[in-house]
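step 4 of 6: structure.
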Amino acid sequence: MTDAPAEVAGRIVVDGRPIEFADGDSVAVAIVRTGEVPGHGGCLCLAGDCGNCLAEVDGVAYVRTCQVAARPGTVVVRHPAGGKPQLPVVDWRDLTLMPVGSKIAVRRTEADVAVIGGGSSGQSAVEAARSAGRDVLLLDARDGSEVVGIYPGPSIVARDPGGMLHVRADEIVVATGSVEIQPACPGSDLGGIVTAGAAERLEAAGVDLGRVVHVGRELLRFEGDAGRVSAVVTVGMDATETTTPCETAVVDLGRAPRDVLARMSRAEGVSAVGPAAEDQPLPAPPRDGVVCPCMGTTVDDLEAAWDQGYTDLELLKRASWAGLGPCQGGACLPHVRSWIAARTSGPPPAPFTARPAARQITLAEAAADVAIDAFRRTPLHDEHLTLGARMDRFGGWWRPWHYGDAVAEYWAVREGVSVGDVSTLGKLVVSGPDVVEALERIYPCHVADIKPGRSRYALLLNERGHVMDDGMILRDAETRFTLTFTSGGAANAEMWLRDWIQTWGLRVHVMDRTMSLAAINVTGPLVKTLLARLGLEDAPRFLGHIRAEIAGVPCHVMRLSFTGETAFELHHPLDGSVALWRALMDAGRDLGVRPHGLQALFGLRLEKGHVIVGMDTELDTTPRRLGMDWAVRMEKPAFIGRASLERTAKLDDSRRWVGFSMDGEAPTEGSPIRSVENGEIIGNVTGSWTSPLLRKALMLGWQRRTPFADRVEIDGREAVVTPTPFYDPEGHRARA
Amino acid sequence: MVSEHIASLQPIAWHEPRDSYDVVIIGGGGHGLSTAYYLATRHGITNVAVVEVDYIASGNTGRNTTIIRSNYAIPEAIRFYDHSRQLYAGLEAETGAAIFHRVKGHVWIAHTEMGMRTERGRVLMNQAMGVDTELLGPADVKRLVPQVDLTGAGRYAVLGASHHVPAATARHDRVAWAFASGASSRGVHLIQHRPVTGLLRDGDRVVGVETAAGPIRAGVVLSAVGGWVSQVAAMARIRLPVRTHPLHAFVTNDFEQGLDKIVASTELACYVSQTERGQMLIGAEFDSQPSFSRLSSFDALRSYAYKISALLPFLRSMRILRTWAGLCDISADFSPIMGETGVDGFLITTGWGTWGFKAIPAGGEAMAELIATGRTPGLIAPFGLDRFRHDLAMADQASAGTR
């Protein structure tokens, strides 16, 4: 029955051997034309339902070859007989690795009604919807539209020859029709067995099937020779067996609903119609042989699992593996249900659920067109790169970790002047007649007494009284404030404010300026000299803020200090950022100005004992545990978290974040802190820095055991609890 | 191959339900079944029923990504999970059941300085607790996981990782069935497809459960319910600091073994291991939006597919066999809640979120001890519900799931 195509359309390569195909051939049909089988036996349906024609096609394993058109040069590799494919191997020279999935197109479309399946029930659904004036999209597997799944929305994800198709529809009609029931009997895993539908397709393609035997429910078993069917054994009404030799067995055992999608989708707006939704008579219970061709589960296997107590369809499926393969039970489910009905002498159990993917896609196809994880860049990104910064992602932004020498950056701040890019800070402008009331309720500190032109450090608490974020409250005018937040906490803080303000119904506008304002922190004992050169004559005093033009760039100048030295934050429009940065670097050249990265900043703040929310804090960090009760005004009648703080203030003071110091190099952040008495782990280090100035190891960290210790063991050395700030405890330098 | 697999199944015994038991456990998942098993084997308490709304292990036990590890960051969690890991390692020997336990090692990759800070701290804390976890540089990562793209597709460069050497995987169904078999063969009743609709009370005390098929009286009721725990707790008039969030996962088809390690990334919020069948089993972070929907989400799939293949590009050409979702009971501090509830006769094991599978043996063992002796074992004492009242969270978010 080997049969060269009458008109050769091209060649594909199967297991390294070229074979010819005719126009219109699928890969599976082209292989069957040569007298072979695309997989390793089992009845072929050639309709995309079974898993018996799976092979690797063009580097993708588990492809239904009946659903892939043969094209010149298509490379097919059969899966190993009785084994599994090897994991794919990446060609590391392949530049399409970046970005993932870039070559696969994604199209998005909408329709009033999407109909899956173009058979008679599908056509009826299409006509009904069209005559109702509705916009209809038809997805037909025979046109290459393979539906992966139906998702809430409802929506459909499909693959078609153009790539991936995402469909949003008001209504989805599953009209997938029915499948031909696969044989489940001894020999049903032989080659040369096809369904009646497949036989029709092969005959229409001009494939010579040799000596054909048609068989229906009288089928008893197949006999084979060298892996191919050689005869069909049937049983008559009188129980006599008849053996009919053949080269191809054509099986017609009736049909079952093609209901993988119908069993998957309980989403609103999804319905199934036609044979896909209709109960069909189940096949006779299988008595022997392979039931699940995908996994190789036999009737004996079902029996063995059932005997061990796995007597529920879902348990039986998981215990026997029937239905766990690529066809999602399409082939075995009618047989397994029939078998259980016979075994229990009861009704068949309801079908098990189906889950995507109904038709499989690769991870690359799933990931096609993903545009996520946009790491934000400040306007100074290229300046940092030019200055040799090692950039790191922090709080959703690219930020300079260091510029080659964190210690030199540290000294520039402590002894000269330095610039740092703090554009990433959260920046909200809030205004309106109720703004003071809103902020008084949101923050645990006083707000009303902040005068215009002044500012105050504030913690942001949640209802449990735990620290969520921190930043500055700067009063611009009677009813207008600028608020700053941490880089990583800004988005959450904005939601938090808007949510509460809306809940309270207060008249407050919130404008998020995080992305529209850049900010440069200029800090160090020489900072005023530098800023004076660029036009800042009357620098505001500590915690003051003014509007001023610096190097021609309009700035909101905020006097505060995270580094412990005199510092000004210059908030300014994005388009002036590079000019301002360069002006600072140029004008400060003789002052030794240099930029500092996060690494130096973390050391600088550590010497001051400043908390970094998220790095030092936990989910249950109260102001008391941070030693920051001064930032909370319990005399205020109401603010978020107040009730919880009132309650937890009465509990034992059981956790405390404190400073430690010891000689030598700083230990690794995260190091356990142990009791000097018994070695028990009592906490951990959240910040650690070898202070170039103080010449010792400084740490911040948690003590979680009471009574709190004065001496602890860190990194095998003894460290002493040390009051913070470690550096300039009176804060003279920040105020200078 | 299937028949070999089936030959290693342990029998599950089914009994005609009674209307009264010493102990009724709501929820036939891993924790409910292991508690029943340890009640029977360690304490000789077998007048026990496990009442399951669907089939056993139909919830999160049968939906999870089967990773067993103890590389947490706080001593209380490390101690608890490492005990569980050790129980797992001995479970096949103890029960005779094949659970396909395989020690693989867990490589937790960091892509940023902050990520490395977390992994360094994890390594030091693990080592201090006697748990075998080591710090890796990029070259070490490549040596252990040759398939990794150290550039992270040009976006997520690998700076290093922690390697938790004894981390393992086990087949989730088999774990549940091992406990179901061991418990039921000793007389524990497993009652499937029986929704609990209420609790029976005698004054303030809970004395049983109301079910769709009638009441069942009990000396003690334990809720070992997953995603729907807040509803069950509400029956006992308890408000839990737990929210339910869906978690999505997916598997590829079967391939020959080739990915030796469990690979995870906090920043990419996903992780992968190869199952004993050869599938790539890929999980991710739970949805940020609370929900009780177990429908798969394509948005979740495409995001995870993108991220995991940025790290392991060989996955790109692999086809996805199946996707699914589970409902995670996420506690306020990302740690479990075990023990007394303040309501007499009603105990709870919950807050298992995305991290409950690894805790099945130790969680069940401890809950069984509490039920049998009336005393909370020291191992789980830090994880009591009252910790929230005392503001003593067991916060270890960086170890819980992926974040």
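step 5 of 6: annotate
 - Chain B has a mean pLDDT of 95.
 - The CA atoms of residues 81 and 389 of chain B lie 24 Å apart.
step 6 of 6: archive
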